Amino acid sequence: MADLLSYATSEQANKLTSLQEEILQIHNIIELQKMRYDNRQNFSFEVNFDTQSLQVIPLVLISLVENFFRHDNLLKDDYRAKK
After folding, report:
1. Which is nearest to 19 in space by CA: 45, 48, 53, 46?
2. SS3 state at 81
């Protein structure tokens, strides 16, 4: 959690950051959420391209991931897709 807080405060001054660093922080958020759900849910993602050379606006992807968890229904019985 300290890494995530440090990233959030230090990267705000930068206009761009590497996608690799942003993905590392997304991984940290997912690990925190796993603790929140007592590992009852399995969250993962995979990246199949070079992330070091790509630049993104800091925290933009993190905001999307945080919103997913904030507005989730992952533990509700009726969450499953209807067939």
Report:
1. 53
2. coil
35 has a pLDDT exceeding 80: yes
pLDDT of residue 19: 92
Residue 82 DSSP symbol: P
DSSP letters of 27-76? Answer: HHHHHHHHHHTTT-S-------S--SS-EE-TTHHHHHHHHHHHT--TTS
| Percent with pLDDT over 70 in the chain | 72
Give the residue from 3, 42, 9 showing the smallest Cα distance to 24: 3
Is 0.85 surpassed by the pTM of this model? no
48, 53, 56 from 35: Cα distances, Å: 26, 31, 28
Q: What backbone torsions phi and psi does residue 13 show, to the nearest 5 degrees? A: -75, -20
